[in-house]
Amino acid sequence: MPALANRLKDIELAASAIMTTKAREIAAKGGKVISLAIGEPDFDTPRHAIEAAYKAALAGDTKYPPQDGTKALKEAVQRKFRRDNNLDYALDEIMIANGGKQVIMNALLATCDPGDEVLIPAPFWISYADMAKLATAKPVFVNCPQNNGFKLRPEDLDAAITPKTKWLFLNFPNNPTGAACSRAEMKALAEVLLKHPHIWVLTDDMYEHLVYDDFEFCTIAEVEPRLKDRVLTVNGASKTYAMTGWRVGFCGGPKALIKAMVNMQSQLTSGISTVGQAAAAAALDGPQDLVKERAAIYKARRDMVVEMLNAAPGIACHKPEGAFYVFPNVAGCLGRTSAGGRKIATDTDFALALLEEKHVAVVQGAAYGMSPYIRISYATDTESLREACARIQEFCRGLG
């Protein structure tokens, strides 16, 4: 068999996808599995967005799209950035991609050369590091411990920067921890970045509307306008509007960077689904009450999950500011044996034993760059969450 590319040698399938596959295998054998492994809203796409896609298709909007996105969606994104983030982007400073993930990959491929470094606060979304590697860059992790609320400290950022640093990734509210930065905390990070003009900044704001307890979201180009000419502000329709399968991401950034990213996208995928873009435009421009209503439901779920997990022996769970994840510490469960006879030496052991014995799928913290934790998504219905947390409690009580 001919050889595969060397660039794939260190790239692995995401742990969340692996756990989901294992959960499906158990379910196929009759097990009643509750999966808390995937970060996907359980709500439906807003009806007016679906209707917009249908009308677009009937109207013949089914031809090849512009490489950078339809004018209608780019204008909707432009209005969104002004409305929500106090950011003004010209239309040639905006592009549409196949989900936020392609936005990020386009940016890396358009800017990175071998040896460049990408700073990634840890814990981090699984894909960041592998995407950096695929772009021939080196991921450099900056530890964000729980005693600082899983947030990036300015002094740690400053210490991690080198002449080779090409990008800093920011993701607050964060996947997997739900941590979010206040305006003062974001300003402190911006002060460090102002000292290092050779660094691009990518802010992944997918969870911006999922914040709780009167927390106010902010994004770094809004907080520090002097950074705007080297910030890529990334967002999408997936989390806010429950449109994961529509694959619509978007971004705003400097004209020259956006032009290079569009060039990259033209070679990789060309433009994205026209009907998907019509749906996303309707979601962005339509009524926003649904977003607040669903955020309130997520908050209630968060509170229940945190309370129930903290009642499980050996687990300590923080209360995050946003997103729809919790990242509980399972250190108190290590070094013990499950009721089924499995040794629990690591958070990976914990996650596998929990799935096999109690049929609850979670993801080990090691996959996100920090142990001993597990990531739990509460983007599922409340009764399933309650049952899953009860099973986790039972699993922990059975540890010997």
Salient structural properties:
3-stranded antiparallel β-sheet, 7-stranded mixed β-sheet, 2 domains, Aspartate Aminotransferase, domain 1, alpha/beta, 400 residues, globular, Aspartate Aminotransferase, domain 2
Q: What is the CATH third-level topology name of the largest domain?
A: Aspartate Aminotransferase, domain 2
Strand order of the largest sheet: 2-8-7-6-5-3-4
- SS elements, strand count: 14
**CATH architectural group of the largest domain:** 3-Layer(aba) Sandwich
Q: How helical, in percent, are the residues?
A: 40-55%
Please write the CATH class name of the largest domain.
Alpha Beta
Judging from the principal axes of the Cα atoms, what is the shape? globular
Q: Which spans of ≥5 residues are poorly predicted at pLDDT below 50?
A: none
Taking the alpha carbons of the first and last residues, their distance comes to 49 Å
Q: Number of helical runs?
A: 13
Tell me the CATH superfamily of the largest domain: Type I PLP-dependent aspartate aminotransferase-like (Major domain)
Largest sheet: 7 strands, mixed
Round the mean pLDDT to the nearest integer and report it.
96
- In N-to-C order, the SSE pattern is HEHHEHEHEHEHEHEEHHHEEEHEEEH
